[in-house]
Protein: YIEGIA protein
Organism: Melghirimyces algeriensis
Amino acid sequence: MAVVIGILTGFLCRMRMLRTDYRQYPTYPHGRVIHLSLGLIAAGLGAVAVPALLNKNYTAITFLSLAAQQFREVRNMERETLSKLDEMVLVKRGSTYIEGIAMVFEGRNYIVILSALLTSLVVLLAGQWIWGVLMGVVLVGVSGLLRTGKLLGDIADVEEGTLRFEGSSLYVDDIYIMNIGLKDNRDRIRKQGLGAVVTPKDKDSRITLSNLGQRQAILHDVSTVLGVYRDTGEPSLVPLIKRDLNDGRLGVFLIPEEKDSKAAIDMIQRVPVLESAVRMPTELLKRLSWRGRSNGNDI
């Protein structure tokens, strides 16, 4: 019974964390079948590990280490798949975004193993299956909280910016974007273009927004929902983000199929903050400052 409840808990946790959203990944239904199947295998490994260890069958540890190796292959598989898909889109995800997605899929399998293992352990220690069910309900609820991380709206303020030209130079408010040489392209930008300004809320956010991968994630997610008003071989109409070096603000230039400034701002706020882009220099400065004061007191 402990193994059955553990497997069920782990599988439900994987289902809870699996979601096909506006980015349409994983694809439905085949991509979902692959990840649910891997989740079932992970749940089985976690649920069986506890009874095996209690019976002093230490080969279970070997199976868990093999599982970890296989799930690292899942990360490589996701990276390869997304990199190939990225070659065929007009606005790419970028390597930072792809690596983040691959890391998430690997990590969620480990969460499934841990959930199944804990549930199985509770049933065996308590001696009653009802405690395992309660533990499973708690873990499934917690796994739902792990489904999403920080969004861009949590670390920055986003507002509509004004697209303007000074000669052939394109600006979003006072942030220079690029030079548009052809009059035809300038007319198309005036007609279809949108601008937004992303203002970091603190020093840490300023460093995070300077990451090129985070900027590319913004462009990709907005273009996924609103489309992009261009075709191949038109570099002047590529969506672009430039940074104001004085205060860290980002000027976002978009040219969507559907010109909807409110939807564009909402989408920018919903862009995930990439784990590999997060930097917290203020934490280090606080520690150094605290150590300096401690050393001064010792003297």
Remarks:
- The chain has eleven helices and seven strands.
- The first helix runs from residue 2 to 17.
